[in-house]
Amino acid sequence: MTDKHPNVSCDLCHIKEFNSYRYKCLNCEDFDLCSFCFECHLEFDDHKMDHLMVKFDSPNNFCGFTIENNTKVDLEFIKQKFQGKRHEEICNACGYRIHGVNLKCDICFNYFQCLNCFQSGKSTDNHVHGYHPMFVFNRSQQVLEIKSVKIIREIGSGGFGRVCLARQNNQDFALKIFDLSENKNKKMNPHYLFKSLLRELDAYNEISGQNIHRMIGNATEGNKFYIATEYMEKGSLKDVLKTDKDFGLCERYKVAFGIICGIIRIHEKGLVHRDIRPDNVLIGNDFTAKIADYGIAKIANQNQDLTNVAFNPYMPPEFYRYLGSETKPKRLDLQKIDIFTYGLTLLEIFNGTHGKKNENEEFSFRNPIVVKKPPQYFKELVEKCVQHKVAARPIPTIIFSYMNKIHSFFRFVCKEEEKKGLESFSFDERENIFKQTYELFINEFNFISEM
């Protein structure tokens, strides 16, 4: 988890000392956004979309650089830091390899510009200058020095490797270790596993956000492949649902809202996750939810199939129709798979259950997963998400708009009570705040009207 940014407030939502990414504007004087507000891509007052941003991963770190407190970070400072730097990326505007400051679009897939093209206001293809926010990017920060990594303990294992809590330079992180030579799973040969790992790296490189699990670095050593990611203290959502007594209603809502925010980030980049479920959502100490495990994430296009997606009981009916079929799913249909699995995850978060329509038969198109027990909250939303008819499922931005009304009210309550966040209230107070808010919300807003 990212440490809190001391003495920094978001200039849009006014949350103090947030622990998401910090986006600092290089055009405005003393202007910062939390990750959530930056990802909304809004203009207001003097801050515009064509303003260049720099992203802080932690209080004194950006793009692999560590700075002292009170260092003035402006464009001239950024230029000095990247002076003489040769990047791997090619500028999508001029076609030349980028030297010096490297800029990445937060909306377009795999889109980069050099500083000269950005300052010239160049637009190309689907990238429109002034409408697509860009931030300073440095891929070299992702190199991991394995020899200096200390393994503390193993925290998980699976068919393809193990996960350890590790430490380097006083930083704790989760380290995935894959030994391709020891892969014994007959369904995935080492070659395909390696391609899957490279795809996971591509997804980590392309997607970032408050609700996206962050990669710290990666490395290869012989037949071993390493991916270092931020350490999420509470483990998976599956673990939290089973054992965490502090997982109250506000915390459950925060996780549910965070997951849909993460799905939007994935879909914005033209990707689909295809395996949203409690096992693949990681939870931090403050109940921030982050979507993880991008080994099967792919670009959503009409030429891909679903044959390499591991079987799991969260898949919608159309998954079984496409298996072994020459018919390829359309892009929107692929993204609607994430909505279906989100609906099942939301169902579990609020104490509902699901299972096979006929428990005595295998999962199939004619025997799909169904809701067995409705959730305590958000019943209508869950029903919409798990519709068997693909077109009837809502798009993620509609779900976000619907749930953001509660999020906005929570922020209003905190501001009125002069609290930094809901965590400043007692557990019982938070439970009452959620129940009262939900009753007001459900009476005033109908999900169907949002669609």
TrEMBL record:
Gene3D superfamilies documented for this protein: 3.30.60.90, Transferase(Phosphotransferase) domain 1 (1.10.510.10)
Q: What class of enzyme is it?
A: transferase
Which keywords, in A-to-Z order, does the entry hold? ATP-binding, Kinase, Metal-binding, Nucleotide-binding, Transferase, Zinc, Zinc-finger
InterPro entries membership = Kinase-like_dom_sf, Prot_kinase_dom, Protein_kinase_ATP_BS, Tyr_kinase_AS, Tyr_kinase_cat_dom, Znf_ZZ, Znf_ZZ_sf
Question: Can you give the residue ranges of the Protein kinase domain?
Answer: 149-410
In this chain, ATP is annotated as bound at: 176
Q: What is its EC number?
A: 2.7.12.2
Q: Name one GO molecular function term.
A: zinc ion binding
PROSITE patterns cross-referenced by the UniProt entry: PROTEIN_KINASE_ATP, PROTEIN_KINASE_DOM, PROTEIN_KINASE_TYR, ZF_ZZ_1, ZF_ZZ_2
Which reaction equation describes what this protein catalyses? L-threonyl-[protein] + ATP = O-phospho-L-threonyl-[protein] + ADP + H(+); L-seryl-[protein] + ATP = O-phospho-L-seryl-[protein] + ADP + H(+); L-tyrosyl-[protein] + ATP = O-phospho-L-tyrosyl-[protein] + ADP + H(+)
Using the record, list the residue span of the signal peptide; answer none if the entry has no such feature: none
Q: Does the keyword Kinase apply?
A: yes
Q: Which family does the entry's similarity section mention?
A: Belongs to the protein kinase superfamily. STE Ser/Thr protein kinase family. MAP kinase kinase subfamily.
The molecule here is called: mitogen-activated protein kinase kinase
